[in-house]
Write a structure and sequence with these properties.
alpha+beta; Aminopeptidase; seven-stranded mixed beta sheet
Length: about 180
Amino acid sequence: AGDFAIRLATAADASALSEFAAHVFHETFAPDNDPMDMQVYLRDAFSPEQQAAEIADPSRVCLMAMVGETMAGYALLRIDATDRGVAGDPTVELQRFYVDHAWHGQGVASRLMAACVAAARGRGVATMWLGVWERNARAIRFYAKQGFTDSGTQEFCLGNDLQTDRVMVRSVRDRV
């Protein structure tokens, strides 16, 4: 991926981000979930209006991984978000981290994660945490390779389906 860049999302990206996020979420999770629950979640979580609100929110950082003009991935950080299983202050939640399946295994995810860590450090954050579906083995392996460790569980509601996410944490302090 020679022409690769990571940049902050802007209001003008809301519609494209909405489409991308819904596509990747559906591609990743639809085979294991009820279609009605997927439909409700996709409508609520990834509307262009929701994406625009998240991009505009000063407590969030939305990063897009671009290969040329093509969106290959995106991440959404929520500054000062807490979870009962997360120690360390201040914290940031890696609320969303999606890489299009076409770009898996090509270094996009690790470069996007490095940008997330840098963004967190730039805001003086000590600890990054995330929730990952307990049945998403590929993502759990990736997060473990990126230095995240298990810290507990949390509930995640997909439509009407109450699921369990593993909570994983890592330090984002500069290594000495």
